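Hi support team,

I submitted a single chain yesterday and got back a structure, but I'm not sure I'm reading the token output correctly. Could someone confirm the output below corresponds to the sequence I sent? I've pasted both exactly as they appear in my results page.

Thanks,
R.
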Amino acid sequence: MEHRVKVTVLDKKLFPELQAQYCAVPDSGKCPCYNVGDEFMFYRNDERDDYWHMGAGTLIKSGKPDEGVLLSPWHNALWYRWCSFLLRSMGRN
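Hi R., thanks for writing in. Yes, this is the structure output for that exact sequence:
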């Protein structure tokens, strides 16, 4: 069965009080991994399963990066939340 999900980053918010309470680096600032306008296309079928390679190659359109934020690789916590959502939307638990 073919499953396809397109994800578009519509907004980014920073809640410093929650970041201070729950993040390993409490003053890390804005997330550098996603930008407003980013678009990702995730596939799950017999030939391709984007869940198992952490979304590599899924970015189809780049948004505008925030000023003053260093670029870094994906955050594992964000990736696991995305995967949970994607699996549910693709009919898998």
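A quick pointer for reading it: Strands lie at 3-8, 39-44, 59-61. Let us know if anything else looks off.

Best,
Support desk
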